[in-house]
Amino acid sequence: MDVKTLCLGVLTEGDQTGYEIKHRFEEAFNHFFGASFGSIYPALAELSRQGLVSCQSVEQTKRPDKKVYSLTERGRRALLDELMTTPPRHKVRSEFLVLMYFAHLLPPERLAAIIDEMIARWEPLVAEIERCAAGAGCDMTPNPGMRFAAGYGRAVLGAALTYVREHKAELIRAVGDAAAEPVALAGD
Amino acid sequence: MDVKTLCLGVLTEGDQTGYEIKHRFEEAFNHFFGASFGSIYPALAELSRQGLVSCQSVEQTKRPDKKVYSLTERGRRALLDELMTTPPRHKVRSEFLVLMYFAHLLPPERLAAIIDEMIARWEPLVAEIERCAAGAGCDMTPNPGMRFAAGYGRAVLGAALTYVREHKAELIRAVGDAAAEPVALAGD
DNA sequence: ACCACCATGTAAACGGTTACATGATTAC
DNA sequence: GTAATCATGTAACCGTTTACATGGTGGT
């Protein structure tokens, strides 16, 4: 499953331009699937070439023509097929946790700054997930899947936030103590 | 931050071969950083070329020579520098949640199978994280960072497990109801 | 018989990010 | 004057996955 499939999926919610699709990605999939313009535009071009979406240009003054994409019947079938057959992978790649893993190699101020940065990034993300689950940014009443995904995000990010908040001081203290130990021995 | 950095990090725990490093990755970083042989061996070769690790071959009968890598002083400095400067990214890419998002396009049996598969995959993962946090697979007493990362994994995976278990039936019912509605109207 | 474990490596293919190119409009 | 919004696209680059290549040992 790649950006192409996600584009097909977004287009089930109505015809959209590449630009709009990008924003829909950010609203709806922000916490579990990222995509940049550099992957979306080529994906749409390829889908168009394969006849899975159709495209009509809308002229605009002093701007590139807007290209509105629609899901074709073949595109819908391809999407359903993909959804029926792709295995449910779930990958996390966290440089944050790598940094935490090697906490004993870092000064406490750096640890504090890293954790604070994560908290500052996750807090608004939870807020946005909540907004999205309430139906913002999408015409229709939020369907069950949307609510499930949003609920998952809220639950998991909530747990992450709680965990880092509750263990920040403990980690910093423990690292400080471990660093102090050999010095104390040497000073004996 | 890439596999190279992680290799340097693992080597702070003691000299190891590429093969052993791979297994250490699976034990320690399983839930937040994946790496295959195809990325580890070239990474070690590159680190060796850069003088960040040293390597001594150990002859073996009827097997390729074992190559034991050690962190050099320059390697340690490079690692510390990397840990001090890399921003704490944290990315999730979940085809599972994409599938859930489009639940209304899938039959209930498929939804149930997907959720059950995730539960079956996460349950042993939590168990392994717990084992690792207790100090298994690593000579030293687990240091604070290891425990923090493991605790994070336990908290977050625990929340994920609880969430999917508690909302599985609800999702499947809601999707079934939504699918039944138009039929009921048509039948009126 | 067959599979898992040990042990290293290469190379093609893949998919995505980043940076670049263009350029008017509107709001602070 | 500076930044954000609208709007599309290309191309170089990056790192990883996947598949292949080799082959003895030990367990069920």
How would you briefly describe this protein structure?
Chain A has helices at 3-11, 18-28, 37-49, 73-85, 95-101, 108-133, 144-187, and strands at 16-17, 53-58, 66-71, 90-94.
Please count the beta strands of chain A (DSSP E, at least 2 residues each). Answer: 4
Give the helix proportion of chain A (percent range): 55-70%
Count of helical stretches of chain A: 7
* SS content category of chain A: mainly alpha
Radius of gyration of chain A: 23 Å
* Lateral strand order in the biggest sheet of chain A: 1-3-2
Spatial separation of the terminal alpha carbons of chain A: 61 Å
Q: Strand count, sense and closure of the main sheet of chain A?
A: 3 strands, antiparallel
Taking pLDDT < 50 over at least 5 consecutive residues as the criterion, the unreliable ranges of chain A are none
Largest Cβ-defined interface: A-B, 64 and 64 residues
Q: Please trace the helix and strand order of chain A, writing H or E for each element.
A: HEHHEEHEHHH
| Structural shape of chain A | elongated
Tell me, rounded to a whole number, the average pLDDT of chain A.
92
* Beta-strand proportion of chain A: 5-15%
| Multimer state | homodimer
Q: What is the element layout, followed by pairings?
A:
The structure is a homodimer of 188-residue chains.
Chain A: H1 3-11, E1 16-17, H2 18-28, H3 37-49, E2 53-58, E3 66-71, H4 73-85, E4 90-94, H5 95-101, H6 108-133, H7 144-187
Antiparallel strand pairs in A: 1-3, 2-3
Helix pairs in contact in A: 1-3, 2-3, 6-7
Chain A binds a DNA duplex (28 and 28 nucleotides) through helix 3.
